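Key idea: predict the complex, not the pieces.
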Amino acid sequence: MKTTDMPRPVDAEPARAVPRKRPRGAASGGLRRAVPATTLLWVLAALYGFPVLWFVLSSFKPAGDLFSSLALFPDDPTLAGYKAAWGSANFSQYFINTTIVCVVATILTVGVSCCTGYALAKYDNKWLKAFFVCILATTMLPGEVMLAPQFLVVRDLGLYNSLAGIIVPALLTATGCFMFRQFFLTVPDELLEAARIDGARELSIFLRIMVPISRPIMLTLAILSFQWRWNDYIFPLLMLNDPSKFTVQIGIQSLVGAQNINWSVVLGGSVITMVPLIIVFLVFQRYVMNADINAGLKD
Amino acid sequence: MKNRAPDMSVSPPRRRSKYTVAPLVLVAGNVVLFGLFFVWPAVIGLVYSFTNYTGIGAFQFVGLDNYQNLFGDSIFYSALTRTLLYTVLFVPLNFVLSLLIANVLVSKHAKGVSVARVFFFIPWLLSPIVVGVLWRWLFGENFGLVNEVIEKLGGSAVPWQSNADLSLIVVVVAASWAWTGFSMLLFIAAIKNVPVSYYEAASLDGAGPWRQFISITLPSIAPTSFIVILLNTIHGMKEYPLFASLNNGGPGTSNNLLVQYIYQTGFKSGQIGYASAASFVLMLILMVVAIIQMMVNRRVENR
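Result:
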């Protein structure tokens, strides 16, 4: 416990460099230490990976084999479940709806958050400070506790039962504002001063200089926002009434909520909804991993 | 703005205050969103919680009746205790698992870390609905893989879905599995920030890995630990989608949680006033949790 009181050594290395700089460990004990650590790592990884693997492989089994065969790999792989899911419960329509919601909401979320984060980082006045505190407050209070009144607001704005009704309320994210604020705080003020001296106007400094340099943050927030909107369930459930406007999550839930679950269709449909996120994640994983995450990493 | 990068004397902060139009334009969008979807709902929610509003037509103020009725309502009471129980089980399990995995992932001895990391992340990507479907598939009573294996090994099928407590435990395990990726990310960042010199000094003093973990890592990441606990508590208290797809709050209504209760009373039975009151009870609990944790956190940091 005393260690926290230890004065930080003056020559403490920058945090980011720490793992690399660790001494590569006495070569003598290298293997002896590597085996248990690696075994533990991979046993855990298998425990986490297995449910998904089993689920995905099962989705290729013919309906008759689903409950009879314990084999990991399907003997007789088929896409019947996928075809049934895509064709039956309007799944293609849900997929299109969800894609529209995710793309539009993500672009707007990034835009709004970038503007707000920049203003909070680079301008100084008491109203901005007050607004920053307000944004902080939204993280303390999850939207779920205001479901009923939010529903009424959306209804009174005439957005009920439209995709806009689930896009617009989602654009306010404290996480997005924080991420951009943190980033813009690291941009030296001298850069702004120099641009001002050159006669640039405030908004053009923002649009021409600041927006382009914040591209990594934009991408990170875009991935997160895409994930939030893709996975959202409660809000679409409340705001959409017309089955032709449903999102994939509502579609899947209506399949498992049925009296007799057609597992073949449910598995196919679930795997279809997993695919876009996993692709986005695998392509952009280094951005997600390196995201400067702080307390607000939630929508 | 305490953590603003220190300004060089060239441009004192005061100079920026002459810009008023630009910041106003920049924050306008979020100010409108904040007003419409946060302040306004919070205000009307509070007002409606004292009324018998049904969502349409006229309503009357009924004073504290909604709040009084809530505590006489056995379904609300069960939803509240079930939510608390779920959170109390989920938070420590998730904490231990994500801290363990974060430590293994930063270990310089383990091989294949960057590939293995993906396995812990994928569950976090999936929606609660898909996670629920997946675990329902694994833990089905008459068909699930887990029961199949138990029967193959000579045991008898376990009633994962028809026993209220077992069904809650399945959700707790599923939720911890799904949320490890998130908590782990916070822990990894915190562990990487602990100066290596601490470990070097401890090694010289003869401290083993376990001793180093207890005496260096754990105290150094205390602030992050509190954030993880806080966020997971909030997350646990508002869980619903996972229950919806895994057991639909069942068997029966035994595992209905607070958010599900709010949804049912507010939207299924049209008692907006009553549901708003239930929402404010949930909000008060979350605020108490947040305040307690902030106080604890401050004490830890000042120690």
